[in-house]
Amino acid sequence: MSGVTFDAGGLIALDRGDRRVLTLLARAAERGMRVTIPATALAQAIRNPARQARLTRLIRQASTDLVSLDGPEATATGLLLAATRTTDIVDAHVVICARRAEQVVVTSDADDLRRLDPGLQLVRV
To answer: Confidence class of residue 2 from pLDDT cuts 50, 70 and 90?
Structure first.
């Protein structure tokens, strides 16, 4: 594992203090691993930054990469949706980010991600 990518469910689990997610992040930090947060997943999870301290802290860490849905990302996401005949932009963006970074995905929605990439490594929360 070179690091972890979060989908919205993983970010919500972090925000709620899920011990599995907190442990996973602690291990990643100990090993100097990167954390990837697709901006689309963040948009689904963030509601009140002042009250979402864990999530806000994670976003601000130097080891966290917040990936925008810019032109090239949008194109890659759209191509994946077309290839898999699916429609969830956020899930597809998460898969694109995880593939690029060669990371596992922290998710509460494994089935939808498996439809996009059956070989993707997942950590269910």
So the answer is: confident
* DSSP label at residue 120: -
Q: Identify the residue whose tokens are 């922290």.
A: 106
Assign residue 116 the CATH number of its domain: 3.40.50.1010
pLDDT tens per residue across span 40-76:
999 999 999 999 999 999 999 999 999 999 999 999 9
**pTM higher than 0.85, yes or no?**
yes
Task: Please state the length of the chain.
Answer: 125
What distance in Å separates the CA atoms of residue 46 and residue 118, rounded to the nearest whole number?
28
Q: Which amino acid is at 114?
A: R
Q: How far apart are CA 32 and CA 29, in angstroms?
A: 5
